[in-house]
Amino acid sequence: MTLSQLTLAQFRSWPRLALDLDARPLAIFGPNGAGKTNILEALSMLSPGRGLRGASPADQARQGPDAGWRIRAALSGHDVETTAPPGETRGVTLDGKPVPQVTLGRLVRLIWLTPAMDRLWTDAPETRRRFLDRLTLSFFPAHADDALAYDKAMRDRNRLLRDDIRDDRWYRALESRMAQAGAAITASRQAALARIMAAQLGARTAFPAARLALRAGDGAADDADAASIAARLAEMRPRDLAAGRTLTGPHRADLGADWGPDDMPAALSSTGEQKALLLSLILANARALADQRPLLLLDEVAAHLDADRRAALHDEIVALPAQAILTGTGRELFDTLAGRARYLAVSRGPGGSTATEEG
User: Which structural domain, as residue segments, surrounds residue 297?
Assistant: First the structure.
């Protein structure tokens, strides 16, 4: 995958932006609020879902919810466009033909890191689960379809639970669908973690390798057997009826990470080590997708990194089989990329964000 052009219209702070890109890393710098992250968010909309901020299309429109926006990209010879007309849901076209969003996951493998993800190891399990599913989706685009199928069946089951419906036949049908999709979800998550760990251990890097595992209090997060999942759902039905929702299954999974000779949990590590662990996973994700040449989006990546680790990160980014776009508040944060990257200065005035490429 190679991204050669990006055009934005009325997206966030950008009235318009047209970028030509090449294989070199692109370092985007400027003051807070200038619109740097908005470029990365626009790029993240070239994947299924709501992008790196999780925002609704109406909230992304520069002129408000009654206006729309447009993102267009040239990807390995394909013309990709995603738009949000006023009052409508986001649409996607590939070479001029409408396609579902999940098609994007098969076309481009996107990996991103944002400052909000610095809290990954101390935040709620739901945050780590979303991170895990984003990793998994980068390897297995069909993971999105499995997740949609599982969520739909679970919503229907939860509706029966809330309404205190006791008909066993209805539950068996929904639990069978949940079990089939849930087994596929868990198997994909396990395979993705195995590939991440292999890519960590197989590289010379300045960042620590983590031992990763699926975890959950109900003991069901690592179950990839459909029959076993269905049996557990049936067994737990009385408890779920009392709670009014499904309390067991892959949707309760958590991502565990330990590192070092003493198996230090990531949540108990220093802020700097937590950031280093997170970067290690992101870099390993990109390495493991070498044959796909992923697009790597790194927002304010220098935060919590000392000069030595920042230089090591830049060396690894240049060596990666990936197309990388980084942001930071000042050009000096990218000094060790000199001669190996392109630089884009971003500022913001009354008319919105503007960008100027610097030598």
Answer: 1-109+289-359
